[in-house]
Input
Amino acid sequence: MLAHIMSNEESIQHLVYLTRTGQFEHCLQQSILVLPHLYTEQQQAAALCELIEAAFQLSKFQEAAYYLPLFENIADTLKDPAFFMRLLLYKGHFYIHIHGDATTALTYYEEGLSLAFECKAYNNLADFIKNIIRYRAKEEKEDKLLAIAELAYIFSQRTEIQQEASRISAAMALLECYSLTGKVEQFEQLEKQVSVLPSLPNFPGELTRLQVLRARVLAKQGYYAQAFCLMKRANLYYEKQQEYYLLLQQLSIQKQLSVKFMPEKIAAIDRKIEKIGKLAKQISLHFDHSVKKEKVYSEENAVCHFHQSIEEQLADKEDFLYLLTFTEDAACYQALIDYPSSKLALSGNRVLYVLKDSSIPADFPAYKLPRIFLTVIHLSEAFSAMELFHKAHAKMYYILHNKK
Output
């Protein structure tokens, strides 16, 4: 396992390498395994950055939603502008992908852009610019965004910070601006340079977006059929990745094009728009929009209080099992809560137990009911209670990920 063959710093560097080269599946798995072994907040924040980035890239929104509050708490504590910029970016992603709220998402993207410019973190500008252009409803401030995108692209070409992911992101931000402002010649020149970058296929989202921008340029030039075909190909990817906001944008443009050269397709596109609109709402319903920060913090206080009692048992070197359970079934969750043992009920249908037996009792609900996942932590090493908590969650999410 990665955490056992590398130092903590080397593990984090490896996670960064995996995201920068587009190996998001590996990054997500490795970061979940590495996280429990990182005990400083600085290291935890660095690993969480890569974990959440990979989760959003893979459209694994449940994982992103689970780890984002943890990252927010650490970032608020550290007060490091670099982490705060990443937090603003991920909160923008969260609101657009999970809640379908483009207005709030843009607020975070624009705040992040301002902070990056203020801190002269030019390598972070591109991520904010491209998302602002992709998700905003109105086309405005093109000249300002173009100037910043050009700065970000120039900076990405410097040898001391040259990374393929940074170059792709910066180039895509500039291509967004060229497409928006109708600079066709500049668009085509940069498009040729981006298309031959070796790592581009590892970033299918950017590759698909490149097709979308090319389609929009073709549409402005009057090549409607070619533009329609490229957009249709991109639609398949967006639907698979649950990029419903961008898909609805595409369908709206396709409907406009159909009016000009194939009106018989308008009815089918309208049906598709209605279907995707419903899917977007269903995704959002998987997450509780009403949860306030106060509730999250209240749960954290309960966890800390629960762990204080565990620390006393750890100090006395008592033998016990640390058990985390999870179920998607409400009836099973109730059975877990009703089980007579020292426990703490958590949000997300999780229950945390401390069992004084050396093995799980035979009457434990997991043996009688389906769809219950659990992880057991034996006290073979010296861990604090909070470290046990993170270790159990890392094992749990690894199990769930590999059962999908």
About this structure: The chain has 18 helices and four strands.
